[in-house]
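Quick start: read one record
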Amino acid sequence: MFTGYSDQTVDFLWGIRFNNDRDWFLAHKEDYLRHVSEPTQALGREVYDRFTDKHPKLTAGLGLHVCRIYRDARRLHGRGPYKDHLWFTIRPENDIWSRQPVFWFEIAPEGCSYGVGFWNATAQTMAAMRRDIDENPQRLAKLARRLNKRGDFQLQGRDYARPKGDPSPLLTPWYNKKDISIGLDRPYDETVCSPALVDALIEGYDFLAPYYQYFDSFCKNGLVDLQ
């Protein structure tokens, strides 16, 4: 059962950021397990179980994945062997999940974030979304206005260096994304440090469900060949 993150969570994550080596990690491994890994796994399980029970059709074929702290040795690129943040995703259970939308949560030294979007959207996916905006702008306009009205979740992702177009002030920020997600950042507040974080994530994912379906439509309707 998730009981909340703690000061020890923050201490470890800042510690590994500035002491990213094997000796420091081994000396603090119990802190990592107790205050970072175990609560993140508990949070992921509770959120996954409740959210999938609430949305069985939406989440059919989705599984829970909690990342490991160890970086891939093939991709260190001069960085230390450990991540200074941990995340879980509720994602498709296949080999091409990174090119499909996922629900995600991340805990880091500065706080946590969560949302929905692509880990690595393909150019074909984003082109399909632009075609849909051109042909049926009201479909996204309704979602964009809903997001702006909410206020706390923000459109995220890299923009193309050369804009692809300017359909309208409301839709242009979406139209020119190279990859795309919608997320919320929050510091270590009372919610993050208590079981209430489970409810906050469920409420957030409930709000984000239509955006997941919107992103996913460009994969499921045959608009994009993901193979």
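The helical segments are 7-18, 22-27, 29-54, 123-135, 137-150, 172-175, 196-220.
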